[in-house]
Design a protein that fits this description.
This protein is mainly alpha-helical. The protein is about 60% helix and about 0% strand. α1 packs parallel to α5, α3 runs antiparallel to α12 and α6 packs across α19.
Length: about 450
């Protein structure tokens, strides 16, 4: 890959750049911050149910913290690229890598989860399984590639749609971000029919058929390497690895901190796991313990250790990115940066093992995943059959159901595939509370007017 061609300030919707006090990539960050899709993340589950009295992370606070880590990674790697590859990049590229790669990664990290539905991964599973379980009735309404999109529904692909799709009555190009920021969140740059779990860039898929031309435009303008034309498969853009690393750093460590705040994980377990990781990276453990001796509040002690661990993982990710830079550029790296680290570091392996056994299998986590699955499934079942009926075949209950579908999501004149995506846009964009409230009302569990 040519380092001079990995970025562009061209935006979705072919909107021209304008003179402003901010760079185009800073403007991406600001556009995401003020977008409705981002604001809705404040009431979408990260891992734990959202309690009223104890602070735990939701998708919005998680994304803000990932963005902070991404900015640090971008600053460190951008400086290294200029020092390491100075003879290969133009003066404009030096300016980009020194001053704007950090802005690109901050923006990309900020919006990496905007396509995720309510209730965490169980929301994704509910959408995909709805179509699997209703294959007999629905399969004939879609072509092979469209059906693959639906039965493999994926938050990463949905993020590209949320950020670029023109809804009814809204402007062309969606949020109108630069192609550089959009390319940086495309972890799985292939269409659903090409999904192959044995390859990192095809483990899931990266765009719906409806956004295929948009994605091809993103890939062309950011010089992503194409692996196959039919089905469409690209290698990952080099910036994706850093967005992924920022996300992995945050959820591995901060889920542990949240579990501690909720009393799921003991202070001693959390401290020991974090201290082992800090020590494994040759940190000055004596200095760390001296600082901890001054902090009596247990939550503050864990917060301090969390900050030290994140700093260590940022530095390790930078090192691994540098060591694997050639493979990242030619698309041959097959493991995420944090997986490479896990392979060589028993302390990090232990944190992941402990989290799987004691956090992600915790009763309250499993309960909300089950509840969320059922809520999302039933909402789809309320709208999909009605939207797919011919107008003259719709009964009164179908018409009543569709009156609940906002105009921007109702593609009555589109294909069955486009109509279905409109319903998915509506349901996947819901917050946990809104989805739960609507579910109760349409099921008659709660009757009455609320504002």
């Amino acid at each position: 890959m040519n380092l001079n061609q990995l970025y562009t300030n061209q935006r979705s919707g072919n909107h021209s750049t304008s003179v402003a006090s901010r760079t185009d990539f800073q403007r991406d960050f600001d556009r995401i911050i003020f977008s409705s899709a981002f604001r809705r993340l404040q009431n979408k589950t990260q891992v734990f149910p959202l309690p009223g009295s104890v602070f735990v992370h939701n998708r919005l606070t998680h994304s803000l913290e990932v963005s902070s880590v991404g900015r640090s990674l971008g600053s460190l790697i951008g400086t290294w690229i200029v020092e390491h590859c100075k003879k290969d990049i133009s003066l404009d590229s030096q300016e980009f890598y020194l001053h704007n790669l950090s802005n690109v990664l901050a923006a990309a990290c900020l919006c990496h989860d905007v396509g995720n539905p309510a209730f965490g991964h169980s929301g994704e599973d509910a959408i995909a399984s709805y179509f699997e379980r209703n294959e007999t009735d629905l399969l004939t309404k879609f072509n092979e590639k469209e059906w693959a999109d639906l039965v493999n529904f994926e938050g990463n692909a949905n993020a590209i749609r949320v950020l670029t799709h023109q809804q009814n009555g809204k402007d062309f190009g969606g949020t109108q971000l630069t192609f550089t920021t959009l390319a940086s969140i495309a972890k799985y740059p292939c269409e659903a029919i090409a999904k192959d779990k044995s390859h990192i860039h095809r483990k899931k898929f990266g765009f719906f058929q409806n956004e295929k031309e948009t994605f091809l435009e993103i890939a062309k303008n950011t010089n992503i390497l194409q692996e196959n034309e039919n089905p469409i498969v690209f290698k990952r853009h080099p910036f994706v690895w850093l967005v992924e690393a920022a996300d992995d750093i945050c959820y591995h460590i901060i889920d542990m901190e949240d579990a501690h705040r909720l009393g799921i994980v003991s202070t001693s377990d959390c401290e020991n796991l974090f201290l082992d990781l800090i020590q494994s990276e040759n940190a000055n453990l004596t200095r760390v313990k001296d600082k901890m001796a001054l902090i009596s509040n247990k939550n503050e002690r864990i917060s301090y250790l969390r900050a030290k661990v994140i700093n260590a993982l940022i530095n390790k990710s930078v090192q691994l990115y540098q060591e694997n830079f050639a493979n990242i550029l030619d698309g041959s790296l097959e493991k995420p940066l944090l997986d490479l680290f896990k392979k060589e570091n028993p302390a990090f392996q232990e944190i992941q093992k402990f989290s799987i056994e004691n956090i992600y299998a915790y009763k309250a986590v499993i309960e909300i995943e089950n509840a969320g699955y059922n809520v999302m499934y039933e909402l789809l079942d309320h709208f999909i059959p009605s939207i797919l009926k011919e107008n003259h075949l719709r009964k009164s209950y179908d018409k009543m159901a569709l009156k609940l579908l906002p105009a921007q999501f109702n593609y009555q004149n589109g294909t069955d595939y486009q109509k279905t995506l409109g319903v998915i846009d509506f349901v996947s964009g819901m917050t946990d509370n809104y989805a739960t409230d609507l579910y109760k009302k349409i099921k008659g569990i709660e009757i009455g007017m609320t504002m």
